[in-house]
Structures
1.
Amino acid sequence: MTIQQTRSKWGQAKFGAGRVPAMAIAIPSGLILGAGLGLLAAVVGITGSNPVLGGLIFALFLAMPAAALVYALIVDRNTLQGAAERPEESIESRWYDHAAAGSFTDLILVAGLGATILAFIPGDFTVDLKLGLPAVVAVCFASFGIRYLALKRRG
Amino acid sequence: MRNLVNESRLQLGWSQQRLADELGVSRQTIISIERGRFDPSLPLAFRLAALFERPIEELFFPDGEPT
């Protein structure tokens, strides 16, 4: 059986000597990871007054991203329908590289400006890392996404 | 960099998707090369030249140089 014949919308992953649909591994793994992280959240006491409900909410919200992460890690892109055989030579690869480089520059700029502004604030002013780090990630996502779309639109 | 990829492809009667499949790249890559917005890597340029059976310098040439 050739690779061309085994291509599918969601692709396959290597499993032992053979291949299985990537989603058949990703979804259960995501659910297990989500449940594990939900349990961890309840055990360490960051879920508020109701650890069971809090743990369930954690698990629900983390299961899908965990499944997506596992899928991205395990899927063999040669088994995906419509995937180019040489993505590194496609223009999308160049858009990605340019957007990532620009996003890195934006991150340095934003972090530098932020640090400068914070240095001029008198008194004890602290930034909660639980808010600061997601903000940094959000800036990176936004910068990368906007740059990639702009490059794509330009062609 | 300008090129004759569009003309060469049309001579063969191929669609952009067919050419993309032959080269293992996305159709958007072919569109961008034909519009002159994307200079392909050297290996890709050589594969294009081999596919169209013409020397690479007949397929790609610098801006300002006559075709």
2.
Amino acid sequence: MSTGSVDDVRTAAPALTGAPEPRTRKRRSEDAAGPLTYVVLGLTAAVFLFPFYYSLVAGSHSPSDLYDGTPPLLPGPQLFENMRLALEQADLFAALGRSLVVSLAVTATTIFFCTLAGFAFAKCSFRGRNALFGITVATLTIPPTLSIIPLYVVMSRLGLVNNLLSVILPGAVTAFGVFFMRQYISQALPDELIEAARVDGASMNRTVFSIVFPLARPGMAVLGILAFMASWNDFLWPFIVVRQSPTIQVAVAGIGAGYTPDISVILAGTVIATVPLLLVTAVFGKQIVGGITAGAVKG
Amino acid sequence: MAVHAPTTTEVTRAGAGGDSPPSSARSSRRSGRAYRNAPYAYIAPFFLLFGAFGLFPLLHTVWISFHEYRLGGSSPTFAGWDNYAWLFQSEAFYNSLWKTLTIGIISTVPQLLFALGLAHLLNFNMKVRAFFRISMIVPYATSLVAATLVFGSIFANTAGGLVNVVLGVLGLDPISWTTGNWTAQIAIAVIVTWHWTGYNALIYLAGMQSIPKDLYEAAAIDGASRFRQFLHVTIPGLRPTILFTIVLSTIGATQLFTEPFLFGNGAGGGALGQYQVLTLFMYETGFEVGRLGRAAAIACVTLIIVILLVLLNAGLAQLRTRDKGQPLLGRRSTASTRKAAR
């Protein structure tokens, strides 16, 4: 199992892609993409990337440039001026910091607790295992949005409204995380290895930390990136519960709320909010692809 | 001999059937107990957090929906079916159901069709495959807040809005996107489609790669064209995956909030109610009007819709498994045993 190699996605989601299927040479020539495929995929990529380009363009002009006649198609000189205005209207740096704290905390707890539980469900036998795992799987498809009313009541009773903990706690673990790690561990970790450790007299904790965690690392990385992205991009719940100390999404959404919403300033703000995740995507793209496709194992 | 036979079978059956790890004579009784209890320690943190902030609120929603409960008000009082009675007489509720359905359809259908086509193209061998794949997830990785704000300016009502400029080039009149009933819904659907198409394409791509190659070879030998191969090999092979994405995106459609909220400039849902989807209606009722009980009733109705969708999926999946004559769980465990044996 080569960690960090080109085949990361496959390593990360053995359940789905299976062992890297050796393509025969004959198939390869038949499967080659024609020029039309490149054109269509290129256009699609352009459409998918266009909004970023447009936010750079629109965020770097004055509003009058934008709406008087033909809109500009090339970046203008005003990006930093608009960003400064955006920062004046909302403390985006503080918001970025809060989002970073929340997302990192959620990522850490999700990875740690979901891997532990996933291991228990994958490799241990204990009473109630099937029932408990059944409950976990049954809630996979229930959207958390439906619980926001009681969740708000709980948070205000605990005095956590406008406290970052109110965003961290509900995101700290996910049913998907347990499901994902169970799948990953049951495929990536031979039973013999755990049995051998046991026979050698290793305690269960020792087995978990010296064997399971190191071997499950690719899966944990995928889960962590997905958790980070979900937490970073979440809007509705933080908007309700931490409006006074907003995360980046809430803060950016708030820029437009002034009485003269200024499109170029708003878009300069979205540039600030989006760049960190674009970097994450550029660096961890393969892991993200692996995580998305592993979600489909479910069916 | 004949006397012993049944005992042997019993032993074998017990040994094979019980999923407890074979007990090792060397491990002491103490470590055995530790092994038996350790799993509970491993699942405990998950279930504590998940129970407190996932399961409990979900169940508590049902309880709140039967109470008169106001934001910042006194303690809740039992109200029976009052909140539901209000809900089923509310015009806004039927409007939000309808808008959820229509926006759901005009965003889900094109999204999944585009995704299917894209996955087909991505499945070819090509030079810059990695770039194309990663470009698929860029919209998914973008926050809906940023995406909606950008699309908000692309769909601006004025003549200088980008879409209206394009319409002008084509000789058409500018459209007031945010104020019209269908135009607003179309704009929302465009944002949703942009955000999720690549995501679904990757799921389809993974599904396509698990279709055995010899099926295509056999079809090619029989003289089937590429397009016919797509129709008669790819689509049937992808059926479970397609079902999965349909369920996922319909559930997603019931959860639409950020796009209509930011594009429609607030929780009101627009002058015509053109943005008023279920989640927006729930948010407005609960946190702007302050009627938590009523909002919980909306959540419960949405929950029932979601559960019906999931059950529908489970039913269809079961039909599918019966077709193949192979239980899902059995398949999974054989896969892991094979891996372990290697």
